[in-house]
């Protein structure tokens, strides 16, 4: 009889990082930050506050507010990003990077997503900033969707690659770029074809849901995020990229909390709140693909390598047991925030 090793029930890995996270501000920040700090060592924090985090001084002040919102004794390092506008000052960006205040710049095409109206309309206007970033090795994080209303919402990432990303790669080839929350086979293929200076983050939810989850049996606002989930073949391409070990793909949860009141209305906000359940969900996804051993590359090694940071020395352990039910929502002083429901039972838990 062929010998089959028993399925593992414990998994120890270097403490993961989250390379794309929304922590918000004020009451929401205080409510959600502990959930990321519990499971992750560091996170690239998105700057799409109202008003956005544009300058080094604003990033530094926001970092102080995040640190103040962490539980006593938490060892969690917020890595800050600057929101790129058409009047961003290249000198301020360079200073923020070289002094360690900001790790990356975030480009939102104006109008593409939550709080992106102050973003970029014309890439030529930010060319001096991008060239300076290329010189100093500062990464650019992209929300990769075109905003052209003529382009079908499910095609906006693919159109972005053709219309924006390819020309940008040609014009500023030394710029290090992260295609954030990649959702398509097209995105995966593009990144995989780039020999250098290019990576992509993959979210928790895009590994789990396809577009049916948003609409099957009724409209389900808690599965609505941007970029919107695509068809099943794209989800499979994302899983393949995540489990491949290819160092260009790493975890960026895009955990994006909105109150239920903001989600459940005629024009509800985009975003899934995944921080409290990401690691158990990822363990299920990697186990189902029989690649549990690669979870550490995806969640703990590939990201720091791209950002030029050492991987975390601390370890965490996940254990597998009877299915458990995460809380349906967390309370905040602004009202409850629904926790992402993967739609399958969770057997894995982070120990401690
Ligand atoms: N992903 C989302 O659906 N929403 C994000 C914005 C973003 O990452 O595009 C948010 O800030 O709510
Ligand atoms: Zn985005
Ligand atoms: Zn995001």
Describe this structure in words.
Keywords: Hydrolase, Metal-binding, Pyrimidine biosynthesis, Zinc. It catalyses: (S)-dihydroorotate + H2O = N-carbamoyl-L-aspartate + H(+). This protein has 352 residues and is of the alpha/beta class. Helix content is 33%, strand content 16%. The model has no long low-confidence stretch (mean pLDDT 97).
Secondary-structure map:
Blueprint: E1 10-14, E2 18-21, H1 26-39, E3 42-45, H2 56-69, E4 77-83, H3 90-98, E5 104-107, H4 127-136, E6 140-142, H5 156-171, E7 177-179, H6 185-192, E8 198-202, H7 212-215, H8 232-243, E9 249-251, H9 260-263, H10 278-288, H11 295-307, E10 315-324, E11 329-330, E12 337-338, E13 346-350
Parallel strand pairs: 2-3, 3-4, 4-5, 5-6, 6-7, 7-8, 8-9
Antiparallel strand pairs: 1-10, 10-13, 11-12
Helix pairs in contact: 3-4
The structure holds N-carbamoyl-L-aspartate and zinc ion (ZN) (2 copies).
Computed Rg: 19 Å
- Average residue-wise pLDDT: 97
E-strand count: 13
Strand numbers in spatial order across the main sheet: 2-3-4-5-6-7-8-9
Could you name the CATH class? Alpha Beta
For the record, the CATH architecture stands as Alpha-Beta Barrel
Q: How many helices in DSSP terms?
A: 11
- Overall structural domain count: 1
Low-confidence stretches: none
Largest sheet: 8 strands, parallel
The helix content, as a percent range, equals: 25-40%
**DSSP strand content:** 15-25%
Bound compounds: N-carbamoyl-L-aspartate, zinc ion
At the fourth level of CATH, the homologous superfamily is: Metal-dependent hydrolases
Order of helices and strands: EEHEHEHEHEHEHEHHEHHHEEEE
Beginning-to-end CA distance, first to last residue: 39 Å
Which secondary-structure class do the elements indicate? alpha/beta
Oligomer class: single chain
General shape: globular
Catalytic activity: (S)-dihydroorotate + H2O = N-carbamoyl-L-aspartate + H(+)
Binding site for Zn(2+) 1: 20, 22, 106, 254
Active site: 254
Keywords: Hydrolase, Metal-binding, Pyrimidine biosynthesis, Zinc
């Amino acid at each position: 009889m062929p010998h089959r090793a028993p399925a593992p029930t414990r998994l120890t890995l270097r403490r993961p990082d989250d390379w794309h996270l929304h922590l918000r501000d004020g009451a929401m920040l205080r409510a959600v930050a502990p959930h990321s700090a519990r499971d992750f060592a560091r996170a690239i924090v998105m700057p799409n506050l109202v008003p956005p985090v544009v300058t080094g001084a604003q990033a530094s002040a926001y970092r102080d507010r995040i640190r103040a919102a962490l539980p006593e004794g938490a060892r969690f390092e917020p890595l800050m990003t600057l929101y790129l506008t058409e009047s961003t000052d290249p000198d301020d960006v360079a200073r923020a990077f070289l002094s360690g205040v900001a790790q990356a710049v975030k480009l939102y095409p104006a109008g593409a997503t939550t709080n992106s109206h102050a973003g970029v309309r014309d890439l030529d206007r930010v060319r001096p900033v991008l060239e300076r970033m290329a010189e100093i090795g500062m990464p650019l994080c992209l929300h990769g969707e075109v905003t052209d209303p003529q382009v079908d919402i499910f095609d906006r990432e693919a159109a972005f690659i053709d219309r924006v990303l390819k020309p940008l790669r040609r014009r500023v080839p030394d710029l290090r770029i992260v295609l954030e929350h990649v959702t398509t086979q097209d995105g995966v293929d593009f990144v995989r074809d780039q020999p250098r200076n290019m990576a992509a983050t993959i979210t928790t939810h895009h590994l789990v849901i396809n577009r049916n989850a948003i609409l099957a049996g009724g409209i389900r606002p808690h599965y609505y995020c941007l970029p919107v989930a695509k068809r099943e073949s794209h989800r499979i391409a994302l899983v393949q990229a995540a489990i491949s070990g290819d160092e260009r793909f790493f975890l960026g949860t895009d955990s994006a909390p909105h109150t239920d009141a903001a989600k459940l209305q005629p024009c509800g906000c985009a975003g899934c709140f995944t921080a409290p359940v990401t690691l158990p969900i990822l363990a299920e996804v990697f186990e189902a693909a029989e690649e549990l051993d690669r979870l550490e590359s995806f969640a703990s090694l590939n990201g720091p390598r791209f950002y030029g940071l050492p991987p975390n020395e601390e370890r965490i352990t996940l254990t597998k047991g009877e299915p458990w039910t995460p809380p349906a929502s967390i309370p905040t002083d602004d009202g409850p925030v629904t926790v992402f429901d993967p739609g399958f039972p969770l057997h894995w838990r982070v120990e401690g």
